[in-house]
Amino acid sequence: MRSLLVLLGLCAVTSAGTRVVVLGDRGDLPPALQVALSPHAEVVTQPAQPAGEVVLDRAAAAQRVAVSSNADASVWVDGDEVWVVSADGRDVRHAPLSGDASPRTFAAVAASLLDELLAPPEKAHIGVDVHVDITPPAAAPPVVAVAPPPMQPVAVAPPTLVEPVIATAAPYDPFHNRHAMIDVGATGTNATAGIEAEALFPIGHSAALGVTVGFNQGIRYTELLDNGQSLFDAAAELRHVGTGTTHFDYGLVAGIGDESGGGEGAIAALRLGVTHELDTFGVGFSLAPTLLVGFYQDNPVLTLMASLHLELRI
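Now predict its structure.
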């Protein structure tokens, strides 16, 4: 008689080399998760909760923590749910915490979500072990067919399963699309040096309306200012704001100015700039061809103004 036995086994995803970040100020959660995962998996702690107004903003912040920590995923408790996000930001999963939210319950839920997040079932590894028995079969006795007794139906209650909800992580959205900002910086031309402040208010996904004031001091003689004279200006700007953490912007500026020597006039400019944004602030540099009319015997003056500024969220 010959028999064939096939053994199938699924490999766990949280094996050697897996690194997970636990965010939050509860010190009892990381050790519990370390016990639930493979002993070769590494669990590190980030004491701060992910920041954000809505849960997908917090998921994006947790993803950045995973990337900066060289981890495969981040785990945190958000309200009465456990959330996990992969370092590449492609998968976010969460499931409710039942009972009293003990460390053991947290570890069981988090480990289950991490298994599904880092190695979906369709990518599971299958190992096959084959054993063959080649013993010659003995003479088989006569087979007597016996009718089986009638089967009685058995009612089986279906199991109650809690399936984690799969959500798509929100792409990183720079804060200039959601908040008003203050731009403060230094300005300069070939003959002046000064400061400038601007309040910017978003009026769409990629547009902002700004109000700016500035002060410039003459540092050498020009058509517009003598050495030591100053110019105050106030203007409005309609700015197109690019996308991404590093983006290019451009805007139209129109306003008025008052020269300390007694002259007044109009100001028009085209501002071209680049800005790099971090989580709560940004830095930028811009060049603005600027036309000044009416200051010096009604002769227009064209100059190029450079600005290095800091963006602060209001």
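The chain has two domains: 4-123, 175-313.
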